[in-house]
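Hi C.,

You asked whether I'd gotten around to modeling the 673-residue construct. I have! Everything is below, sequence then structure, no commentary in between.
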Amino acid sequence: MLWSCSAASSPSAPDAGHTALAIDAFTATPSELTEGQSTTLAWTLTGAVTITISPDVGALAADQRSVTVKPVTTTTYTLTATDDAGAPQTRAVTVTVHPRIALEIGSFTATPSDLALGQSTTLAWSLAGAAGVAISPDVGALAAGQTSVAVIPADTTTYTLTARDDAGATQSRTVTVTVHPRKVGDWTYYGAREGLSRDIRDVSADEGGNVYVAGVDALYAKQRGDEKFLRFDAANGGLSRKCNDWSYSTKVAQLPPTPFTLCPVISVAGAAPGGAFVGYDGFDFSFICDLQDVVCLEQPLAGWALDSGGADVVAFDGKSLSLTRHVLTGGPPHVVCDYLHDQWTKKCQPAPGQQPLASLPYWTTGRRLLHRVDHVAVNHNAWSLMYGDAWMGGQHATLAALIAKPQQRGWWDPIAELDASTQDEWKDARYFWEHLHPVVTWTASNGAQSVYYGQGYAVSINPQDGAPWGSNGARTAYVPVNQGGYGETFSRQDWWMGPAAQVVDHADGKTTDWMYGADIWPDVPPFIPASLGDGTPDDSVRALSHCQDGTVWVGSFTHGLAQLDAWGNVIQKVSLPDNFAGAVALACDWGGAGAGTLWIGLGTGGVLRRTTDGHFQDMTVAGAPAFASQPVRSIQLDRWGSGGRVVYFAFGAVSDKSGAITAPGGVAAYAGP
């Protein structure tokens, strides 16, 4: 046997240029998505010459490492890679596709949907299919998944929720939050958001419960239950344009008479249901000449300046306001309301030692000294013929009156006896009784005799007999009904004041009180009005208010309070508590359990209440708006509206030295006991 030998076979040696095929990873990010969304397929591998992905993708570049796909259903993607010898490897990944959820706003609510100013509400919502959400106004975009947000709306607001899906489609839903006036306990507050001006001077209600506010630039009015005030001026309410675009000048007589504008609205008094009296500021001539020089008063001023200011009578139906008549607050020629003469008669006889009326300029030209009407009080005694009489105080006047039912009461109408052209000039003064005031005389340091008339800051009417009371700051007086010439009928029209005449010669012989004016806080002689220089302060009376029993409270800016009986006798004097000063507004309450208590508005800001047992309550309310701590201009009762009496307070604005308002005023209504 022969044996043959040959070399044994062995494996081929590796190719130095060949890389082994390997798929290290194949992923989908995200691996779960909603219909319409995309995912990114990504992979890492080595040794691949070709790459394909199925389904739907196909062949890819060998060096590509990702691709974006948008599957419409759940899909398993398979990555297939081959090497240079054609050998394949595969790796699979599944992308789960959830059906698209349709965009839908399930709910959008506000809790609470009614709130008072300053309170917050929570906006809440439920959504489906939303990729983003935003709320307007004031809120903006919100975080994904957020379902509520708290807001504090400044006024009644409609909020809009807008939801967006990932395709850009949107849906919206709205909810309205009603914001009522700020309410804290028994107090409700009204300001600019309720339609009022920034400058508040007076507030009053008529016998139908309608509320009126003197807001300087206009008259504001609302029905008692309404939350917003309506604004009325010359354009939409017919209020009288009696002021001029003038500047203070001694050449006022030469100023052009146009354009006429609405005078500042500074006082208001509600009357019969749907009616009110509106008082205006007028041309201030006090800087031109000495107020006691009648010739200076009458001659340099143009007629428009003398007729500026005055008052309007208006009607309000809850939605619109209209002018009933304008009141020219002056006395026509041949009529003089002067205590030295037999006034408002045809005799016109001067008192002994006084000059005849015919020698005075205002005998032939008329006298118009009451331009600024600071305060109005209306007689509400419906059982009396004096019902509706409107008594006014202001510039150079303690008391002046527009007379109701003049023919029934025997009024002598001097305007009817004027010639036709003069009648037309004075028609707005018909049934107006010009003015009356107590005066004080004193001897100045140079020996000259001077007379102080003051201003009619305070007016009130006795509900028992209808007697009007007024103060010029220094002295307080009233017109006795059926004794002083005034009453339901007129036996004469030369009215006189009470209480009983006081002629007081002080120890130094320099001071004399005239004409029935009560000096409640007697002066230390010599009397010199505080407004005219250093001296003893006068009574500084700024407010009067009658209680239901006919007694009257007197408020002094410097002395505190005094209570007088119906004849002017002092019942008591009361100092304000420490840290409180300036009783500039008063209202004796008539309301149920509060009857007889006294509301006191302070010139330094805020409100006090004096109970019938003599205790004072600081009525500062935590949470009240800032204006409730500002000076009080007026306090008035609404005794007639349904739902019980309401006490209204007018808080004035605060201004800087230039007159610019730095803190606006407002109105408060108290409906508590």
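If it helps when you're writing up: The longest strand covers residues 88-98.

Thanks,
B.
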